[in-house]
Every structure is written in C-alpha cells, then in structure tokens.
C-alpha cells in the first residue's frame, strides 16, 4: 500500500542522510586531521620463508581523530579520493615512509624496502612520477628500496595510461606490486602485459584456502602462474602456521599477516627486527 511505500522511502532516505552526514564529517575532520598531524604510518613485515628474513615492509596509514576516534583506512581513503584530498594524503604517507625507512636503514646491514599503497586516482590523475622522484631526492634512499602497490581498479579505469605511468615509475628504479590479486577482473592477459615485478594474493583467498579445496587450488595456481610470468608472489592475511607452511610449500616468496606481525609503529617494527635477528 501507499503508506508502507512511503514509510520505506522515509526509512531509506534517513539512512542515506546518515551516510551522507558521516561522509561529510569524515571529509571535514580529515582536512583538519592532516593539518593537525593526526595521521601516522604503521609498518607490517613481509617475511621471506626461504631465507628466514624480513627485507621488505608495507606502510599502512592510521588515523585517530579526537571526535571520530580511530577511522579505518578503507573508509577515509575512499572519502579522500572523492573529496580531492588523496593527493595530500598520498604525499604525506610517501614522505613519512621514506623518512622512517631511511632512518631505520642507518642501523641496518641489509637495507629495508618499503611498499607504499598508491590509489588509482593518484596513479592516473596526479603527477605521480614527479612526486616519487622528488620524495626520493629528499632522502638518501635508493629508488629500488621503494615499491608501490596498485590495485586492479587502476587497470580497469585506464589500462593503457596505467601501463605507461608504471613504465616511467620503473624507469626511476622503483618497484611495482599488483595488490589484491584475484578480487577484481584479473586476467592472464592483464598480468602478462603489466610492468610489475610482484603480485599480492588477496587475503580472502589465503584465509579460505584451508577451508575450501577450490581456494587452495586457486592459490597454488596463482603462485605457479606468477612464477611462469617471472613475478614474485606475496600472500597477505596469513594468520596461522598452517597457512605459512602450505604457502611455503607452494613456493610463495613472501608471507604477510598477523601470524608474523600486525602493522605496528616504526619503533615497534624496529624492535621486531632486532628480536628476529637475535632469535
Ligand atoms: P591493503 O593494501 O590490501 O592492506 C592490507 C590490509 O590487511 C591492511 O588493512 C592490513 O592491516 C590488513 N592485514 C594485514 N595482515 C592481516 C591478517 O593477517 N589478517 C587480516 N584480517 N588482515 C590483515 P588496513 O591497514 O586496515 O588497510 C586497509 C586498506 O586501506 C588497504 O588494504 C589499502 O587498500 C588502504 N590503505 C591503507 N593505507 C593506505 C595508504 O597509505 N594509501 C592508500 N592509497 N591506501 C591505503
Ligand atoms: Ca597493499
Ligand atoms: Ca591487499
Ligand atoms: Ca585490500
């Protein structure tokens, strides 16, 4: 009846309104948060089972706002992309990560590489090559110690441009990884033509591989395929020893996940590396 429909509509619009309000709040607080330095960067190790070493880590943004509390990166990254703040956010995380890792490397024999996530908007619509070049020139860090992680959304938006930009980035000496592999429209055709040295299997597949036989076969096939195409493979979301052992058996190059370490602040990451070395 009409009344029910009307009620549904009101309910729906109230919910929409709540969502829009939250979005606006996040957008405004994010602008202030960037100025007030509320954002920090955490580091998560990528463990190499073949050598029992950690020579790479991923930089992950964290945001704690006095009004909103901790906001998940999934949420504020999306808002930042839509509100035009992603460039500032991207510059922040890039510079912080490079500064932190340069500092960390002063005390290390084997240099640490850092992976920074780059959103599709940044790769396609900002002068990313110049930004990477400039950020690197401010640090005494070799370009090969920087890796960028991109997702398939970039390839779907504009494959030709993405390939062109990635070629330029690799010419700088910066490495490229394809993130969340398997979740989007990944195809063999994409991967073989993509200038990247690494693919990251999405944590969804990794977590399901001990539950569903199909997912285990899929993970094994992705690793075999990546090897055939001369790409390194990272498994993310590794939470148990059983996962680690199976992935190692399949030939996975790097293991990332809570089983090794969650993302942590720089000082805790440094302690983690010291503990590993002395173990
Ligand atoms: P992502 O790039 O796929 O990052 C991996 C996510 O998995 C991270 O979530 C990480 O904390 C989480 N994770 C790591 N190990 C495990 C595990 O063993 N189990 C489970 N369940 N999760 C694990 P986080 O930090 O919440 O980040 C979410 C997403 O936000 C990232 O997904 C990335 O897409 C985006 N993001 C984070 N930092 C940045 C950034 O600096 N720039 C951009 N553009 N995006 C970022
Ligand atoms: Ca990532
Ligand atoms: Ca991922
Ligand atoms: Ca993800």
UniProtKB/TrEMBL annotation:
Source domain of life: Bacteria
Residue ranges of every copy of the EAL domain listed in the record: 23-277
UniProt name for this protein: Diguanylate cyclase/phosphodiesterase
Species of the source: Desulfuromonas acetoxidans (strain DSM 684 / 11070)
Parent-protein residues present: 480 to 758 of 764
């Amino acid at each position: 009846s009409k009344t029910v429909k009307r009620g549904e509509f009101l309910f729906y619009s109230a919910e929409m309104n709540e969502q829009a309000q939250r979005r606006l709040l996040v957008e405004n607080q994010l602008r202030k948060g960037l100025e007030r330095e509320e954002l920090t960067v955490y580091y998560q190790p990528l463990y190499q089972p073949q050598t029992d070493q950690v020579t790479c880590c991923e930089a992950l943004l964290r945001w704690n706002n006095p009004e909103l509390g901790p906001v998940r990166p999934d949420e504020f990254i999306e808002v930042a992309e839509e509100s035009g703040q992603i460039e500032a956010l991207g510059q922040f995380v890039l510079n912080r990560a490079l500064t932190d890792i340069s500092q960390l490397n002063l005390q290390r024999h084997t240099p640490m590489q850092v992976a920074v996530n780059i959103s599709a908007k940044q790769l396609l619509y900002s002068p990313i090559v110049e930004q990477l070049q400039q950020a690197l020139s401010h640090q005494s860090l070799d370009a090969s110690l920087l890796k960028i992680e991109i997702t398939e959304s970039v390839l779907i938006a504009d494959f030709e441009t993405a390939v062109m930009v990635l070629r330029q980035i690799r010419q700088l000496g910066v490495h490229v990884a394809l993130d969340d592999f398997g979740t989007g429209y990944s195809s063999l055709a994409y991967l073989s033509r993509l200038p990247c040295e690494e693919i990251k299997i999405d944590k969804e597949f990794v977590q399901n591989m001990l539950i569903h036989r199909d997912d285990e076969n899929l993970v094994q096939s992705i690793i075999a395929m990546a090897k055939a195409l001369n790409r390194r493979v990272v498994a993310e979301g590794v939470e148990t020893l059983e996962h680690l052992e199976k992935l190692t058996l399949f030939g996975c190059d790097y293991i990332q996940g809570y089983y090794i370490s969650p993302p942590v602040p720089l000082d805790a990451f440094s302690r983690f590396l010291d503990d590993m070395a002395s173990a």
